[in-house]
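We modelled the chain as a single entity of 150 amino acids. Its sequence is:
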Amino acid sequence: MVNAHDVPSSKLIGALAAQMKNLPSVQEPDWARWVKTGSHAERSPVNADWWFARAASLMRKLYIHGPLGLSDLKRAYGGSKALHYFPKHHRDAGGSSTRRILKQLEQAELVAKTPKGRVLSPKGRAMVDKSSKEIFTSLAEENKALARYA
């Protein structure tokens, strides 16, 4: 059985982001074009479809790392910020975009809320597994050595 651990994360996130665009409940708000992702960022994201890429990345993180809360995800998507001549310090990512994406994924029934944090629902897990299998079969066609693992 092929899962998200067996395929490159960049390919999986790209495939999931393409599927997210077709979901009616996952839509980027108007302010998403101008917002920074946190206080550590200097500019807004360069990728025009960053909202869907972040949603796909959230699904992959929930698949691999189990139940996660909003503070865990803010820490994961944060970065370092230079403070004049002082050493760099970590800053968490902004919570508004992450929280709104999680709520949209809950409306699409891909993510479920539990007392320990958010987890992927069976529908979300099946979506990630299906995308992983498709990516792995395409990689196996390119590289014949991988074909025996499919």
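As a brief sanity check on the tokenised model: The mean pLDDT is 92. Residues 42 and 89 are 15 Å apart (CA to CA).
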